Amino acid sequence: MSLSNRLIIFDTTLRDGEQSPGASMTREEKLRIAKQLERLKVDVIEAGFAAASQGDFESIKSIAAHVRDSTVCSLSRANDRDIARAAEALAPAERKRIHTFIATSPLHMQMKLRMEPAQVLEQAKLAVRFARQHTDDIEFSPEDGSRSEEDFLCRVLEGVIAEGATTINFPDTVGYAVPEMFGATIKRLRERIPNSDKAVWSVHCHNDLGLAVANSLAGVMIGGARQIECTINGLGERAGNTALEEVVMALRTRQAYYNLTVGIDTTQIVAASKMVSQITGFAVQPNKAVVGANAFAHASGIHQDGILKARETYEIMRAEDVGWTANKIVLGKLSGRNAFKQRLQELGIEMESEAEVNAAFGRFKELADRKAEIFDEDIMALVSDEETAQENEYYRFVSLAQRSETGETPTAKVVFSMGGKEYSCDGEGDGPVDAMVNAIECQARSGAELVLFSINAISTGTQSQGEVTMRLSNAGRIVNGVGSDPDIVVASAKAYLSGLNKLHSKIERVNPQTE
Ligand code: KIV
Ligand code: ZN
Question: Which range of residues forms the domain containing residue 86?
């Protein structure tokens, strides 16, 4: 069986990535990421799970209408309702794929589905047959594949290929696989299934043991898979999925070994990473491969000396090849509207109307009055904050006064609006952030619990804006609020209110893995 040496990159940041607790995104945010994925030239964008919620349905529809260069895909469980919903959401797409799945491991079939294997086999075949009525591009996944029995997998996969599945995706749903075994299983399945050559084989690995990238590459090299499913920054359920940036740069840097090509424009990787991190509030660890702030930093004298003499001494990739640029002061107080608009375009930020550009320019001017140098990251944060505010306006930040002094109890006065009515509330606390939250809660009484607080400098230097993520939990729901400002207590107040807005919007989503 001869295999192509072109590998398909299937990005599932907007579906599996969004399943991370707190990572849910709005329609506008998803569209912005989808456009960046298109610039990155991913082959397939899994835009969501249409049957999960009305919001997910609308997001997929809007991505299907705007993305032209990548195939747009929706996940669906193996039932007619989910598949019909996926097909409806994908209708505007130039190229569309329906990805249907059902669990095949004994544990999942007995405990979760409460179905006999014969019923699962039948349902899988019926689902693919039904999906074929809507598109020719059908992907099927046997969920929990790496813990499924091989004989049963052979029957199911042969059956769905006979019904017209064009991609067979083999998932390591719980991140249990180890590379050599995982690759060998896919190889055996491909050898044992008589019609296996009628489909492209794919891998979908979770990172519970930190092996997602290694398993994916073994699935390709040993197993013969020609599609890798991955996410930006490795976002995803629990410990996440295969990180796109890692797997792509491994293939590219070790091209002579892998002898495989991908269509990715690697110079768009860092922009994609920053956008996903900014929108979801999931910070990228500094020592993260490829996209971490330290990935190309050399601290030790010996390394610095070596790099200056010949960069290859300690660098196996070039920072600019993945899109790292020196922090540039791009704009300042005196920059005009045209320069601002041009920079938005260069950053790939599309505004729908001139009124939107004007509003963004107004906010930029406000920021430039308070901060001498405006970096690309500042502009991205400004746009991100405004999109969040526009979508969920129940709570809105107005102003904050705060006081703290060694030996004194910190106090805060926060002015904010709730349901259109403005409130001015005072609070005190153990620290300035605690005082600010207490002030808001005097009136909001949300019952939310703060489960994670993180703050990052958006650019370099003490004049950098702080970007705060606050993960809030209430009645079993977890959301991430994000806010940025040169004043970190104000950034925290914005993040807290953005989290309350998300809790208030009560977007209910069904998780595909929960029947
Ligand atoms: O991890 C998994 O099994 C999945 C499937 C839906 C492909 O995400
Ligand atoms: Zn998954």
Answer: 8-280
